Automatic annotation (TrEMBL), chain A:
Source organism phylogeny: Bacteria, Bacillati, Actinomycetota, Actinomycetes, Kitasatosporales
Chain positions covered by the region annotation Disordered: 470-500
Subcellular localization(s) per the UniProt record: Membrane
Superkingdom as given in the UniProt entry: Bacteria
One family name in Pfam for this protein: FTSW_RODA_SPOVE
Membrane topology: Multi-pass membrane protein
Protein name: FtsW/RodA/SpoVE family cell cycle protein
Organism: Streptomyces roseiscleroticus
Biased composition (Low complexity): 471-494
TrEMBL record, chain B:
Lineage: Bacteria, Bacillati, Actinomycetota, Actinomycetes, Kitasatosporales
Protein name in the entry: Penicillin-binding protein
One GO biological process term: cell wall organization
UniProt xrefs under InterPro entries: Beta-lactam/transpept (IPR050515), Beta-lactam/transpept-like (IPR012338), PBPA_dimer (IPR054120), PCN-bd_Tpept (IPR001460)
This protein's GO CC annotations: plasma membrane
Organism: Streptomyces ruber
Keywords: Signal
Signal peptide: 1-23
Superkingdom, taxonomy of origin: Bacteria
Alphabetical list of Gene3D superfamilies matching this protein: DD-peptidase/beta-lactamase superfamily (3.40.710.10), Penicillin-binding protein 2a (Domain 2) (3.90.1310.10)
Matches recorded under Pfam families: PBP_dimer_2, Transpeptidase
Length: 500, 488
């Protein structure tokens, strides 16, 4: 049984309600949309409160835009909620509120940092990007009727991802990294979109080939657990390794390459259960990282910074970014200085993007930071739970992959700015300034919502069908008819290739 | 596959736990070290995040704060900066702080725990106490009189209330505007370079931080020692001193600038400043008693604070024995004898106060921003430095100096004034331009005790050597200060 105890109350309710009211498949109580709505209210009110707190701390008054800001966020949340209510009625009720809350908090933090840089405001643009992200979320939820359609574009996704990854090489480097392309004044990070596409490709490829990967291999030292894959199936993993190292060297983007590689290793393990793959993966990753860390000056300096964050202070050149970031976290202590009262802006460049977590640490303290990490943890957990609840291998791998993207991204950047691992440029999901990242994360949440709807819907519909069959109603026929229409619509060439 | 997804989820959970543990490490365990790192700018930002408390002279603030809107938000401003610079010092965002700004920094910056009613609560709520106020003892009229009196000349004035030790005026010229150093922009850097590099050393507080040879003004100390020791019993009796006086153990002859010093009485010698008489008196009193009297008046005290530290004045090296020739020269304020203007004001204040020294102090009290008293300076118990009879004798002698001696220019209408002039040689072979000294006290007619004691020194590098004298250059400044105090 893969359907967890957690869903049982909902299912019981669904069962009773459907049994009591046999007309259309009931959508209200089984989907827990009411819970989602209540949580969304909290998720909108919390950022509005934060927005007011910043204004009160800085100027002693509630900022004049508070009502408009709250209304804007509420409208976005409401539209997303309606889309979910309409097309994904059984979806997990936690996913959307967490996304709205994180995005709202991100806007508050960026607005707060804008006060320190009046000539360089980022919050309005971020609000526009967030609106675009929510629009894309709604589109995905409305248009994509079944996530299994995406399995058909496995190789299209790969090609698109490669193109997106290669694009920035043609553009000039910005701050030492070639990860941006500039079009008409907008900076876009194609690598962000490539994350989702690669997750799609990995999930599709592994779902198709996992048996071949699982049941071929050579034993290492005669141990059953450490079977090495044969050369024929080793091809893709080597290709991906080359790709991530290529990204690292050509674009100097350590974070993204780490993310790709971590994602692939996790999905490979989940698909095959072969620890041998993990061993090979880790070996290759370590070899690649050490080689690049030694040879590539940009990456090398990051490692040196991580080992000795205060070297520049001792050399009399003043604190570097990482040192300033650590100062900010330390200044926050347990409870923080309060929103608007910290000095994380001392970090300077990238304080609104890569280092946004330092503002959380300083102004909300360890308490706020812990709450934030738990929010991310909850988001990831809901993703994994969706993966567990699904029955098709592609869906399970995709949900696991998307959840892992969020988890790895949080770990890489949060660990970087707190000095746990070498710092690599990466956006804190939903929180950091950066349009591409926000849009990508909304797409991730949209896909998770779609899949969790299938996962929970399949159960509820199944149970309902069984009950109806037992009760001798005609429910089964109507259910079957609906499914048939849906699959036909999919075959008719609906544009389900999201983002490609 | 389920098991593997669970394991992957467990790995992610592990990553989140690592993040949380590391965050706690940075924010709790390492936080004190990071907060104390000198490269961390937060303490500086917090220091200038609110207006600094004000320094008050006669109830009116002589300082202020300006909101710059920059990262270091409030900048110090000064009203009459050059006039009060020897009192306030500066509070710079780049170059630290000096004098009262430094000594009372905790009150002015609001970090003094006594400023707040609930320090523990404020600590928890991270709220800041507004900067408190420092109420000084300075008399603005006396300060202004001294400052305008010195004018463009180099010099210093210190004025005290003899009965309490309150500092009434503390002036040093050339002065500077401390407001120029407040900010952290290029103009502050330029001002710092200009002021710290100037040959006239405008940032040196000559009234307390520079020691001069006191010259003939030190004869007050020698006379006090001689009277206390009984070397001289009658100020009108001849002192059996030769003119010129050969320094004991040498063949060097000490001469006078004036006539009639041979066997002169103490009164004559004091009024006309006979070097020979006082050199011999010092030798007759002996090094031990001379040192004792000088120490009683405040010499050789490295611990004097008003509340900022005052450079120690010296009579003879602290432990090295003096030979008699050195003692003779030291007794007329030459050789190794050094005194700050404040020290000489203390000497004359002791004479005016019946022989007792009152420790000088510049801060009347400190208050919170709302005016609640935080601390009050309680005058320390008077410290007897000479017999009251000796002090009375000296007052008589000093009055004579002003009435018909070298200090006639210090006379104030409607008041009894006592003074002593001094012209101090210095430099290698006494080649430097002499310093003109004048120390005095004044008692308004009908008042029971003198209300002011002043010491004035004029370095006066530009005047002709022959014209420089305590009576000519310094006495009019002292008179202006005394008039200002008596009038107020």
């Amino acid at each position: 049984m893969e359907h967890r105890a957690c869903y049982v109350p909902g299912m019981t309710k669904a069962g009773t309600s459907v049994a009591a009211d046999p007309s259309p498949p009931a959508v209200r109580s089984p989907g827990r949309r009411g819970v989602e709505f209540s949580l969304l209210t909290v998720a909108v009110l919390l950022p509005v409160y934060g927005y007011c707190a910043v204004g009160l701390a800085r100027h002693g008054t509630v900022p004049p835009g508070a009502a408009g800001y709250g209304a804007g966020l509420a409208v976005l949340a409401l539209l997303a909620h309606l889309a979910v209510r309409l097309r994904a009625p059984y979806a997990d009720p936690l996913l959307l509120p967490i996304a709205v809350l994180l995005n709202g908090l991100g806007l508050v933090l960026i607005y707060r940092l804008d006060l320190e840089t009046p000539h360089d405001r980022a919050a309005p643009a971020q609000l526009v990007w967030s609106a675009l992200g929510v629009a894309l979320f709604i589109t995905v939820v409305l248009v994509l009727r079944d996530h299994r359609m995406l399995q058909r574009c496995t190789y299209v996704s790969m090609a698109a991802a490669l193109v997106l990854l290669a694009l920035p090489i043609l553009f000039p480097a910005v701050n030492g990294a070639r990860i941006w392309i500039r079009v008409a004044g907008f900076s876009i990070q194609p690598g962000e979109f490539a994350k989702v596409l690669l997750a799609l490709f990995f999930a599709g490829y592994l779902a198709g080939n996992r048996h071949a990967l699982t049941y071929t291999g050579r034993r290492l030292w005669g141990l059953k657990r450490f079977e090495l894959p044969t050369g024929r199936v080793l091809g893709p993993i080597v290709a991906i390794w080359v790709l991530s190292v290529g990204v690292l060297v050509l674009e100097r983007d350590l974070g993204t390459s780490l993310l790709f590689f971590g994602l692939f290793v996790v999905l490979l393990y989940v698909a095959t259960g072969r620890t041998g793959w993990i061993a090979v993966g880790l070996l290759l990753a370590v070899a690649g990282a050490v080689a690049v860390g030694r040879l590539e000056p940009h990456v090398h300096s990051r490692v040196e910074d991580w080992l000795h964050p205060f070297a520049s202070v001792e050399a009399g050149r003043g604190p570097g970014q990482l040192a300033q970031s650590l100062f900010a976290f330390a200044a926050g202590g347990a409870l923080g200085t309060g929103l608007g009262l910290g000095h994380s802006v001392l970090i300077g460049f990238a304080v609104k993007s890569d280092f946004i977590l330092a503002t959380v640490g300083e102004e909300l303290g360890l308490a706020g930071l812990t709450a934030l990490f738990l929010l991310y943890g909850l988001l990831v957990e809901r993703g994994y739970r969706t993966g567990l609840a699904l029955r098709d291998p592609f869906g399970r791998l995709l949900a696991t992959g998307l959840a892992s993207i969020v988890a790895l991204q949080v770990f890489v950047i949060a660990g970087g700015v707190t000095g746990l691992i070498p710092l690599t440029g990466m956006a804190m999901p939903f929180l950091a300034q950066g349009g591409s990242s926000v849009i990508t994360n909304w797409v991730i949440v949209a896909l998770l919502i779609r899949m969790s709807d299938s996962a929970r819907g399949q159960d509820i519909r199944g149970r309902a069908a069984v009950r109806r069959a037992r009760a001798g109603t005609a429910g089964r026929a109507s259910e079957a008819g609906k499914a048939g229409r849906a699959s036909k619509a999919g075959k008719a060439g609906r544009p389900y290739g999201v983002g490609s | 596959m389920t098991t593997y997804i669970r394991r992957a989820a467990a790995l992610c959970a592990l990553l989140f736990v690592a993040l949380l543990v590391n965050a706690a490490r940075v924010q709790i365990y390492q936080a004190p070290a990071h907060d104390a790192n000198p490269a961390n700018r937060r303490p500086t930002i917090a220091r200038w995040a609110q207006p600094r408390g004000d320094i008050l002279v006669a109830g009116r603030p002589v300082t202020g704060s300006r909101d710059t809107g920059e990262q270091l938000r409030y900048e110090r401003t000064y009203r009459n900066g050059p006039l009060y610079a020897p009192v306030t010092g500066f509070a710079s965002q780049m170059y630290g702080s000096t004098l009262l700004e430094d000594a009372e920094d905790r009150v002015l910056a609001g970090t003094e725990p006594a400023l707040s009613l609930m320090p523990v609560w404020n600590d928890m709520a991270r709220s800041r106490t507004p900067g408190g106020r420092v109420v000084t003892t300075v008399d603005p009229a006396a300060q202004l009189a001294a400052y305008t009196g010195l004018g463009s000349r180099r010099g210093a004035v210190a004025a005290l209330d003899p009965a309490t030790g309150r500092v009434l005026a503390l002036v040093s010229t050339p002065s500077y505007d401390p407001g120029e150093l407040s900010g952290n922009d290029r103009s502050a850097t330029a001002a710092w370079k200009r002021l710290s590099g100037a040959a006239s050393r405008p940032m040196l507080n000559r009234a307390i931080r520079r020691t001069y040879p006191p010259g003939s003004t030190f004869k007050v100390v020698t006379a006090a020692a001689a009277l206390d020791a009984g070397v001289v019993r009658n100020v009108d009796a001849p002192t059996r001193s030769p003119d010129p006086y050969t320094l004991p153990g040498t063949s060097t002859a000490l001469a006078n600038e004036v006539e009639g010093c041979a066997d002169a009485s103490l009164r004559y010698a004091f009024e006309w400043s006979c070097n020979t008489v006082f050199a011999k008196l010092g030798v007759d009193v002996g090094a031990g008693r001379m040192r004792e009297t000088a120490r009683g008046l405040g010499f050789n005290d490295a611990g004097l604070r008003i509340p900022f530290p005052v450079a120690p004045s010296g009579f003879g090296a602290a432990d090295a024995p003096m030979d008699r020739a050195q003692l003779a020269l030291s007794s007329i304020g030459q050789f190794d004898t050094r005194a700050t203007p404040l020290q000489m004001a203390m000497v004359t204040a002791a004479v005016a106060n019946g022989g007792s020294v009152r420790a000088p102090y510049l801060v009347e009290r400190t208050t919170s921003a709302s005016g609640a008293t935080v601390s009050v300076t309680v005058p320390r118990a008077p410290h007897p430095a000479m017999n009251p009879a000796t002090a009375a004798r000296l007052r008589e002698l000093m009055t004579g100096v002003v009435e018909h001696g070298t200090g006639a220019k210090a006379a104030v209408k409607g008041a009894t004034v006592g003074g002593k002039t001094g012209t101090a040689q210095h430099g290698v072979g006494n080649s430097g331009t002499p310093y003109a000294w004048f120390i005095s006290w004044a008692r308004a007619e009908g008042a029971p005790a003198p209300a002011v004691a002043v010491a004035v020194v004029v370095e006066d590098a530009d005047a002709d050597r022959g014209d420089i004298s305590g009576g000519g250059d310094a006495a009019p400044i002292a008179r202006a200060v005394m008039e200002a105090v008596l009038r107020g």
